[in-house]
Amino acid sequence: MDQSQFRLVIPSQTRYLNLVTGLAKRASLVAGLDDATAAKVSIAVDEAVTNVIIHAYGGEGEHSVELELRFTAEALEIHIWHSGRGIRGDQMVLPDPKEYIKHPRKGGLGLLLMSRFMDEVQFKADEVSGRNECCLIKKIS
């Protein structure tokens, strides 16, 4: 199988989000996705990395977030690793959009957007290394 990949490591600071989202959008276009889909992938990556910075690291900027983009014939995979507090797949509770509209609040839509914009969203923990992973997959149609 033909596969190429590359990695980027950024500090856990929101000022680097534009770099990450721009990269995600360009990678999506390189993978063969259309512009609208590339924009959605970019939003999903923004939400995932923002969640790592704010929730996993509690806003502490001296940690790192590692991204790996993998291009295959079938999909674009974006793996995001961190060593902060993790979320497990069985802990992922998506808000009901209708309830959210009735009772709006700041935040809370990141997981919903990620799950709607990507074909797969997976959360894993590596007990040996102590790192957590969020994997976002967008299939190439």
TrEMBL record:
Q: Does the keyword S-adenosyl-L-methionine apply?
A: no
Alphabetically sorted, this entry's keywords are: Kinase, Serine/threonine-protein kinase, Transferase
Q: Which residues cross the membrane?
A: none
In what residue span(s) does the Histidine kinase/HSP90-like ATPase domain sit? 11-132
Q: Which SUPFAM superfamilies did the record assign?
A: ATPase domain of HSP90 chaperone/DNA topoisomerase II/histidine kinase
The highest taxon in the source lineage is Bacteria
Entry protein name: Histidine kinase/HSP90-like ATPase domain-containing protein
InterPro entries linked: Anti-sigma-factor_SerPK, HATPase_C_sf, HATPase_dom
